[in-house]
Amino acid sequence: MLNTAITDVVPAPKNLRFSEVTQTSFRAHWDHGAPDVALYRIGWTKKGETNFQYVRQPSRWFALK
């Protein structure tokens, strides 16, 4: 059986803001760009390393350190 599916581009989060900002960390807050968004992929770099964190609904914030 062969099937095809077409998916739309995931809308960006809305109302992105930051709090608890220090020299080594911060907290990011957002509102979901659409009700059917299952997760956002948040990426950041620190001293040449790349780390990725998957944030699933209903999360609307993440602390980056």
Automatic annotation (TrEMBL):
It comes from the Eukaryota. It comes from Hucho hucho. Coiled coil: none annotated. This is Fibronectin type-III domain-containing protein.
